[in-house]
Task: inverse folding
């Protein structure tokens, strides 16, 4: 039996509503399920492309060894590399010494590193005090204080010989944030037999200085060759993972990849509309 025109109109409304909802759902999923992968190119030559992703943060926990002298405010301590690594084309052999500042950066020098708490842009010619001139990884350069319970810089070597990871983890808070407990932790990770390295963030603070709003993030060989991910910009959020690589892993930058589920739903909405057009003819 043929449907009455009224019934067809009712079905049209219902199907059209469903299609509209699917389109809205698709847009929602596109916005929420998309993993943005942006790449920032280096300034100068021989530098690192920095690309972000989201990876669940994992503290090294008890597996880390507290670096002596770092459970304080504004200090530098040195440690020995467990394996050879290359930073900006220079090889630092296993056993060689580099420096960690409690204010969130690594400096590839065995002496004279800076504990400056006033972060400046990666490529700034303004002088740090004391001078910060060595090649550096600015993991989260801010005025941190690592006197919180369990605070400090921790070193861990993970994995098996040949594919080990060196993890340097900071635990503390941003000075002046009104807190007493740890609300910042993050890592720099270096890989044996790879020139890549990673910055990874767990807790990223509280209040107006949180999420990198007063921090410098990037890497630098010198003032002509560097990569600046961010400066005083609240873009450093929990689980952010930034990989530094000598080659661009992501030539088509800033293009979000829709999830397959969203594409499926979009296709579903289109199929409904097609069916609708057939039915009302
Ligand atoms: Ca400090």
Result:
């Amino acid at each position: 039996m043929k449907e009455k025109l009224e019934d067809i109109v009712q079905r049209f409304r219902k199907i059209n509503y469903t299609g509209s909802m699917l389109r809205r759902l698709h847009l929602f999923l596109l916005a929420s399920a998309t993993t943005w992968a942006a790449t920032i190119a280096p300034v100068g030559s021989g530098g690192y492309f920095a690309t972000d992703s989201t990876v669940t943060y994992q503290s090294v926990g008890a597996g880390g060894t507290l670096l002596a002298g770092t459970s304080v405010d504004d200090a530098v301590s040195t440690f020995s590399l467990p394996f050879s690594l290359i930073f900006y084309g220079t090889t630092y052999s296993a056993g060689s010494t580099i420096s960690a500042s409690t204010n969130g950066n690594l400096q590839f020098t065995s002496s004279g590193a800076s504990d400056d708490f006033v972060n400046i842009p990666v490529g700034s010619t303004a002088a740090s005090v004391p001078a910060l001139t060595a090649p550096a990884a600015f993991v989260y350069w801010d005025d941190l204080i690592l006197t919180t319970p369990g605070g400090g810089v921790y070193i861990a070597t993970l994995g098996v010989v040949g594919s080990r990871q060196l993890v340097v983890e900071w635990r503390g808070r941003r000075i002046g944030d009104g807190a007493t407990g740890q609300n910042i932790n993050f890592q720099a990770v270096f890989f044996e037999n790879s020139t890549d390295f990673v910055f990874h963030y767990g807790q990223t603070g509280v209040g107006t200085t949180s999420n990198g709003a007063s921090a410098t993030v990037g890497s630098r060989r010198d003032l002509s060759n560097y990569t600046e991910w961010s400066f005083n910009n609240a873009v450093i959020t929990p689980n952010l993972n930034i990989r530094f690589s000598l080659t661009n892993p992501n030539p088509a930058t800033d293009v979000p990849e829709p999830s397959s589920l969203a594409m499926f739903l979009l296709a579903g909405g289109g199929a409904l509309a097609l069916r609708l057009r057939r039915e009302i003819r």
Q: What stands out?
A: Residues 218 and 228 are 4 Å apart (CA to CA). Residues 8-36, 254-281 have pLDDT under 50 and may be disordered. Residues 73-74, 103, 117, 143-145, 175 surround calcium ion (CB under 6 Å).
